[in-house]
Design goal:
The chain is an alpha/beta fold and 279 residues long. It is built from 10 helices and 15 strands. Helix content is 34%, strand content 23%. The relative contact order is 0.20.
Length: 279
């Protein structure tokens, strides 16, 4: 389909006024019909999409909302889609990842302070049943994005497999910050979703909670090492364009997301602790 210059220009203006790079606005969120506001929420597949489908099916209508859930498997896309106005909110990321996106991409995005859940990272292996079995020079799959790479390294450091250099913030640490590596571990960097698919190709891999769930892995039953939820900074947060956080529909969205029934749903759906409520 061809657009005339005028139509194209109008489309560009609409995109910019709704985009996070220019700031959001209280009247630019969702679509309203017969008193119901439809909001499009971008999520990861599991557990994020599962949580938001529960919210849509059980809580949204009473709040005057209808939620359209759009699932993503690539972490680089949901913030861009939100900024570009394709989404009204997203829910797929923890705060350190969002902070890195705001800093590196310049996104003007707002996160609600109280998160919904935490997915503990874990070290998995198809070749070994205990970390003591890891041989000298073992290959370890690890996230290639900065926010999650530091998280994976912290799990290994907390369990004595490596030591990070003095003064390094674990949240921003990279494999170049490893100061002590007694087992001479060889780190194989990969995109998060690839780590579960290529688990057989490594001695072990640190895998994000949602990707482990998609692969049928349980951190409690299959993890050689599991991240502690205590004091965990990696709670997943609801994110909107900066300026949209005061919008009435967005306020309602955040409120129903923290309903007691959502906490119960998380606990009952993932009783083995693969997903833990953060509120």
């Amino acid at each position: 389909m061809k657009l005339t210059y005028a139509a194209l220009a109008a489309t560009t203006v609409l995109a910019l006024t709704g985009c996070g790079l220019t700031g959001g606005g209280a009247d630019e969120v969702g679509t309203e019909s017969n008193g119901v506001t439809t909001l499009t929420i971008g999520t990861s597949v599991t557990p994020h999409g599962d949580i938001w489908r529960y919210i849509d099916e059980n809580l949204a209508a009473d709040a005057g909302l209808d939620l359209e859930i759009k699932e993503f498997t690539d972490y680089s896309l949901p913030n861009r889609a939100l900024v570009d106005g394709e989404l009204d909110a997203n829910y797929f990321q923890h705060l350190p990842f969002l902070d890195s996106e705001r800093e590196n991409q310049g996104y003007e995005l707002y996160n609600f302070e109280q998160g919904l859940h935490i997915e503990p990272f874990a070290l998995y292996s198809e070749k070994h049943t205990d970390v003591a079995e890891l041989p000298d020079g073992a290959t370890i799959g690890i996230n290639n994005d900065p926010a999650n790479q530091g998280r994976a390294l912290k799990l290994l450091a907390d369990n004595g497999l490596i030591e990070l250099a003095d003064g390094v913030d674990p949240i921003t640490a990279t494999i170049h910050d490893v100061a002590e590596n007694p087992k001479n571990l060889e780190f194989v960097e990969a995109e998060a979703a690839q780590l579960a698919r290529t688990l057989a190709d490594t001695d072990a891999s640190v895998i994000n909670g949602n990707n482990a769930l998609n692969a049928g892995l349980s951190s409690k039953e299959d993890g050689l090492l599991v991240e502690s939820p205590e004091g965990n900074p990696y709670q997943n947060v609801l994110v909107v364009r900066a300026g949209d956080e005061e919008n009435e529909a967005i306020q309602k969205l955040n409120e129903i997301a923290h309903d007691d029934s959502v906490r119960s749903f998380i606990e009952e759906t993932w009783p083995k602790g693969e997903v833990i409520p953060a509120f």
